[in-house]
């Protein structure tokens, strides 16, 4: 447990916000040290010199361990117990994504595609320069763990599947190209979020998405009732691989697509009123509002209203779900937030030096997020969906 006196003071936080790297490094080092001591206390069932009936071991000094982070090199003292049973997950989890970021920066420098600024950042992060052999060793360790994560069996069933792509700039043969990173998230029947796949493709095509989905199925993906995706042609592969699942077209993407059917100087109220339809509690209410919207705007924007009337039903599938799931499952926003977190962590790179570094850093961040999600409280209460499923089975019988 972190003691109050070890937490950053207001003054320390102000210095942190002012980019005082020495102070930031000291704060992070103190916090991580307290985390290590807290882990040991929890493992032994008692604090240092504490008398406790539940104690299951005793401390036996410390050993020194260096942790490389983006705030510099941290020197930590890792507690030990007499029986040698204590093991911390702090280093493995934290350094997986940090090493991937550092390795990508270092590759930029070694390959000669970086600027002096990148070199300075790399040395500031790690306290020293990198050789090609050092980068190779870091990458080998990372690749082994990331490959194991990407190939793991999906034994439990997943009720919900959310898929979308994000684009990254990658240097290929001296040319900077925009490459798609295809991401699949799942929500299992216990309501926990998990990252199921992160794969790179040259573009979002039907064949590339079909490959991702077939790969998930081969790894054991089953039980999918409902899929959320954009209307991109590649995502129609869902219908081929998961034909029995309900398909929800992301309503946020749908509203963005609506702009293509409006003149440049369109009335903002038109799209705002279309947006409000998705706040209705039931499908009957949404369809009633849609009819009113069509009557109001058809004379002025016939191209938009004709397109909407023909395609909007796919954005109403979420009304099949329990009402408390609507706000979470009517769009790909869950995945969009994950993509924003990736962008926040990768913005320092701007351009990946090669495809391998792209498929090393983003999956490393995905693993970190995946583990945090599993440890958090469940994302959705699935009891109502389970009851709906049972009712459907009884009705079919």
Automatic annotation (TrEMBL):
The keyword DNA-binding applies. Pfam families: Transposase_mut (PF00872). Keywords: DNA recombination, DNA-binding, Transposable element, Transposition. InterPro entries: Transposase_mutator (IPR001207). It comes from the Bacteria. The keyword Electron transport does not apply. Required for the transposition of the insertion element. Belongs to the transposase mutator family. This is Mutator family transposase. The lineage of its organism: Bacteria, Pseudomonadati, Pseudomonadota, Alphaproteobacteria, Sphingomonadales.
């Amino acid at each position: 447990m972190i003691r109050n006196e070890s937490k950053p003071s207001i003054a320390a936080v102000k210095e942190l916000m002012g980019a005082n790297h020495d102070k930031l490094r000291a704060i992070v080092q103190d916090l991580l040290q307290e985390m290590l001591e807290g882990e040991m206390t929890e493992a032994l069932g008692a604090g240092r010199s504490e008398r406790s009936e539940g104690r299951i071991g005793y401390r036996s000094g410390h050993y020194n361990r260096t942790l490389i982070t983006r705030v510099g090199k941290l020197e930590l003292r890792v507690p030990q117990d007499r029986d040698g049973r204590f093991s911390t997950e702090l280093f493995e989890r934290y350094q997986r994504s940090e090493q991937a970021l550092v390795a990508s920066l270092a590759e930029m420098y070694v390959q000669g595609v970086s600027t002096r600024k990148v070199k300075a950042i790399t040395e500031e992060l790690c306290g020293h320069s990198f050789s090609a052999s050092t980068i190779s060793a870091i990458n080998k360790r990372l690749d082994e763990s990331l490959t194991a994560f990407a190939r793991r069996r999906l034994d439990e069933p997943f009720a919900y599947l959310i898929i979308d792509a994000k684009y990254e700039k990658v240097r290929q043969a001296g040319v900077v190209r925009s490459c798609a990173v295809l991401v699949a998230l799942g929500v299992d029947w216990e309501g926990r979020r998990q990252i199921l796949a992160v794969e790179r493709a040259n573009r979002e095509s039907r064949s590339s998405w079909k490959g991702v989905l077939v790969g998930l199925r081969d790894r054991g993906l089953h039980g999918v009732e409902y899929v959320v995706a954009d209307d991109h042609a590649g995502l129609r592969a869902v219908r081929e691989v998961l034909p029995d699942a309900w398909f929800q077209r992301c309503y946020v993407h749908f509203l963005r697509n609506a702009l293509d059917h409006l003149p440049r100087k369109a009335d903002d109220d038109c799209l705002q009123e279309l947006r409000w339809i998705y706040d209705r509690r039931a499908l009957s209410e949404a369809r009633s509002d849609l009819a009113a919207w069509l009557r109001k705007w058809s004379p002025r924007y016939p191209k938009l209203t004709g397109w909407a009337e023909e395609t909007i039903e796919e954005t109403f599938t979420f009304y099949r779900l329990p009402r408390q799931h609507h706000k979470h499952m009517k769009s790909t926003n869950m995945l969009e937030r994950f993509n924003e977190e990736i962008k926040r962590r990768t913005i320092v790179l701007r351009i990946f030096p090669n495809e391998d570094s792209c498929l090393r850093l983003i999956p490393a961040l995905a693993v970190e997020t995946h583990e945090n999600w599993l440890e958090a409280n469940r994302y959705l209460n699935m009891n109502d969906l389970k009851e709906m499923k049972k009712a459907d089975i009884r009705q079919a019988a």
